[in-house]
Give the backbone structure.
Amino acid sequence: MATTATTMQGLRLADRMSRLGTESAFDVLVRAKALEAAGREIVHLEIGEPDFPTAMQIVEAGVDALRYGWTHYGPSAGLPALREAVAEDAGLRRGISIDPSEVVITPGAKPIMFFVILALIDPDDEVIYPNPGFPIYESMINFVGGRPVPYALREEHDFDVDAGDIIGKITDRTRLVILNSPHNPTGGVMPRESVAELAQALAGRDLFILSDEIYSRLIYEGEHASIAQFPGMRERTIILDGFSKTYAMTGWRLGYGIMRPDLAERVAQLQTNATSCTASFSQIAAVTALRGDQSCVDEMREEFRRRRSVIVDGLNKIPGFRCRQPHGAFYAFPNITGTGRQSKALSDALLNEAGVAALSGTAFGAWGEGHLRFSFANSVENIQKALDWIEAWVKRNL
Ligand code: PLP
């Protein structure tokens, strides 16, 4: 018999569910789609995914994989061919040697956060993480009963990490430090000197570093520096990376973690419990992504560079907005304190009244107040339209 409202009991959830956060980009997307369904025109600058199609050679490799029968379960840690390709590619790019046994392939890179925090953090263990930062870090730390210890990324320091600030927060309960460079939502990139300073201070300590490097191929100035490259850091670093942003493959769900082999085995065991494995045909396509022509990555980065100028210049012309140049990823994170509005109120008003979907800085933690995040994964024409609509709204309302 179908359950009806009259027979339904109040939903009693496990305690831990009250501590689980979310990623509000998906909520804003739903609200924006509802407005569109009601006939409104909306420019989407909320969601963090490249608007480019996946390159044709990768698509064809995926289609062929389906035809050749890659339609079954595979090993939880990932297909050997892809673990090897990742070890080679990620190692070459960072100048370190990586063994395939250190690689775990996951459906998107997000599960690496989930599994690593689940595997390493006990109740009351402290985790140092960026605020503003990707909301799933804080959500997961709270979910497992850990203690979240935020560090700030300051606009006046070009959103670089202040190594001294992180070092000052380490206690004997610290188990994990989370880094994210290039950084979502600020576009900040840690220069090599900052990473070196941090590595020196962390070497020899009994803690892990989760280094989220998902945007490492999307840097506009300078080079990517991974903390795993520094002495004493390899065995205590978990590198998180993947295919979603680099190869415009968000919907294929493909990511990976690189970590010491004994931890990799336990993370793979979590995967056995959660999803069994990552889709086999996706993994075969990913081998082609890594080993094939890389011009799709370069072309996408150059197009993002063009859009970056349009959005940053445009935002800086709007009264009350002040925007720094992001050095990596595809987000602009303007300061909006000059508008006199709170971030959430402003992002709601822009969505409902101006037709521009963006995220409140507070979607990335309390210290994101005073900012909005605009994803420039949209065409120059649409970005220009959004800028015009915001400017017109500001003129009418402020
Ligand atoms: N890390 C950061 C900083 C991100 O911004 C994202 C996606 O938005 C991810 C990880 C997760 O990527 P994936 O889609 O591969 O799970």
